[in-house]
Amino acid sequence: MNPWFDLARRSLSTQNNVRQWINRVRIVPASQPLIPPVVEKAAQQAIYEGLLQDKQIECVYRARGPLGEDRSYILNPLALVQKGSIIYLICTRHDKTEVQTFALHRFKSAHVLDSRALHPVNFDIDEYIDSGALGFRVDFNQPTEMVDLELIMNEADALYFTESQLSKEQTITQISEELFKVSASVPFTSQLVWWLRSFGKKIIRIEPVNVFNAVHEIE
Questions:
Q1: Strand runs (DSSP E) across the chain, as ranges?
Q2: How far is it, in rounded angstroms, from Cα 196 to Cα 214?
Q3: Is 70 exceeded by the pLDDT of residue 204?
Q4: Parallel, antiparallel, or unpaired for β 86-93 and 171-174?
Q5: What is the spatial distance between Cα 212 and Cα 151, in angstroms, rounded to a whole number?
Q6: Contact call for residues 193 and 215 (beta carbons, < 8 A)
Q7: Are the C-beta atoms of 134 and 101 separated by less than 8 Å?
Q8: WYL domain: which residues (predicted)?
Q9: Contact (CB, 8 A) for 183 and 170
Q10: CATH 2.60.40 fits 146-215, yes or no
Q11: Rounded Cα distance, 42 and 69, in Å
Q12: Fewer Cβ in 10 A, N or C end of the chain?
């Protein structure tokens, strides 16, 4: 997406105050920073054009892993989402109605077709993101489900959630002189599991049991 941001910067270059603002603002990743994967530029351009023109794209996509096979698809582009250092195309395949994510750096080639892209009825990108789909499913055979998460921790660690909430309905309850319970309804995703692991021993108890088992890798 950098060429588009560069264009915006150039268009603002004559406005000194705006330029100073851009030079004084930085975004620092909350997690371990990673070098972005290399994206095939011609494929990226075709994907962006297909999304802009609302046209189908024909592509060759490399499956994940060193032994991943190249596969050809016709895709209906719906949206682009950047998560960390990776850009994802949100789309449907011409032979399936399920909304899927394709990482841009795995496209080997792509070109725009003349045919109009087909959209799922009532698809909304914000609702799709809020569903936890981009957190990636714990079980790829099942859709992402919501769980009533409960975390037991001491007061100092629970204070973190008073500033950065898990959800709008989150509650924090004191359950003893030293312990607090943080409760929230959240999507049960791999991202949630990895994030909970980062707390280590700061979380004294995790409920429900299926989330606890996933965090501690208990079958």
A1: 55-62, 70-83, 86-93, 100-103, 107-116, 146-154, 171-174, 179-187, 205-207
A2: 10
A3: yes
A4: unpaired
A5: 10
A6: yes
A7: yes
A8: 45-112
A9: yes
A10: no
A11: 20
A12: C
Q: Per-domain residue ranges for the chain? A: 37-130, 146-215
pLDDT tens for 3-57 read: 656 666 666 655 566 667 667 777 777 777 778 899 999 999 999 999 999 999 9
Q: Was domain 37-130 assigned CATH 2.60.60?
A: no
Q: Give the ranges where 114-208 is alpha helix by DSSP (H).
A: 125-130, 155-158, 160-163, 190-197
Give Cβ neighbours of residue 22 (< 8 Å, ≥ 6 apart): 9, 12
The pLDDT of residue 138: 59
Q: Closest Cα to residue 75, out of 108, 43, 110, 40? A: 110
**For range 188-211, the mean pLDDT:** 92
Alpha-carbon span 45 to 19, nearest angstrom: 27
